[in-house]
TrEMBL record:
Entries under InterPro entries matching the protein: Flavin_Rdtase-like_dom (IPR002563), Flavoredoxin (IPR052174), Split_barrel_FMN-bd (IPR012349)
Residues of the Flavin reductase like domain: 13-164
Keyword Flavoprotein: yes
Cofactors required: FMN
Cell cycle found in the keyword field: no
Alphabetically ordered keywords of this record: Flavoprotein
Protein name: Flavin reductase
Organism of origin: Geothrix oryzae
Family annotation (Pfam families): Flavin_Reduct
Amino acid sequence: MPRRALALSKVYGLLEPGPVVLLTTAHGGHRDIMALSWHTMMEFEPPLVGCVISNRNHSFGLLKTTRECVLNIPSVDLAEQVVGCGNTSGRRVDKFARFGLTARPASRVAAPLIAECFANLECRVVDTRLVPKYCFFVLEVVKAWKDAALPPQTIHHLGRGEFVVSGEHLKLKSKMK
């Protein structure tokens, strides 16, 4: 199979680790939603998630101040709202209102859940040592919620407005429980 060189700026589209999530934060009566695809699992128990949030994003300051958030996992039917949240700054816009999303109270953090998402992970920041250099936060999931239905199709960002929708589910023999 012939190969061609790939621009280094496109490498991340090959390695995106998981579905696009909607990260919610809240502070001082203000709440925000940002689309996030640069995240990775770091540990199973307790569940730790690492994520990169640019210090140019409004959510960066909210997360740094409050040290808590919710990772809301949308299905493909929310793709337009996900892209809208990703292309809009929350500094002056209520993204819940603009994109027709419903905020629900979380049980362990002040940031809201998004009711339309099939799963919600309430998180607290547990490590900020890599924030100054890489804007990399380590989050501990302290409460998790999931719709009882079968897993829906998720969206995965490839860059520059392109996405892949998760496909067929496979169940193969594994030693992991």
